[in-house]
Amino acid sequence: MAAVGSAEYTEEPTTNVKFQRSLNLPGCSGSLSLLGTGYREKVFAIIGVKVYAVGLYVNPSILSKLNAWKGQSTSEIQESPSLFNLIFQSPLEKSLQIVLVRDVDGKTFWDALDDAISPRIKALTSIDESALSTFRSIFQGRPLKKGTFIFLTWLDSSKMLVCVSSDGLPSNVDATIESGNVTLALFDVFFGNAPVSPSLKDSVAKGLTTILK
Questions:
Q1: pLDDT digits 0-9 by tens, 77-109
Q2: What does R_g of the chain's alpha carbons equal in angstroms?
Q3: For the segment 36-78, what is each residue's pLDDT rounded down to a tens digit?
Q4: Alpha helices for the chain (secondary structure H)
Q5: 29, 45, 115, 169: which has the fewest Cβ within 10 Å?
Q6: 60: phi then psi, degrees, rounded to nearest 5
């Protein structure tokens, strides 16, 4: 799968963050499998600063829905919006694990996320605004230390769980986001045409290529 690692972990090669190959998360019906890893870099005064490592986990049953892409190359899979849309629309869990590799103020983290999500929603509804407010409240005034885990877990195409933990895997859900526009926008932030972590999308495409041989 993604990069090198032991039998139980995969290491993201740029940040050296280790991701479990499979894990169980609050609110999910079963174990999720790691599909790929990457990192997010922000540029400050021309210098690239790595902010977090990120991995995509999916309910393994999703993979059986992707037979139409069997035998395709990594680049064909990476450039297939319909494949990533099918993964998003599937009523099976998928989760992003974000692992901070530096201390970040919660407001700074949210502002960066909001700056990516909001332009992807053409007209905010009251449902969207309520969902964004709930999302924002998780991070406002909350210092996020290096090593903090943030899980963004889609239960289906309009419902997402947010878990934040500074001490290993989370045991409870911090918030539930219920807005199809917000959940789709967030998926597009990572897997659309202009992903914030190109390395993640590339790694996921490579993982799918291997699985769909």
A1: 999 999 999 999 999 999 999 999 999 999 999
A2: 16
A3: 999 999 877 777 789 999 999 999 999 999 999 999 999 999 9
A4: 74-78, 81-89, 106-117, 126-139, 180-191, 198-211
A5: 45
A6: -55, -25
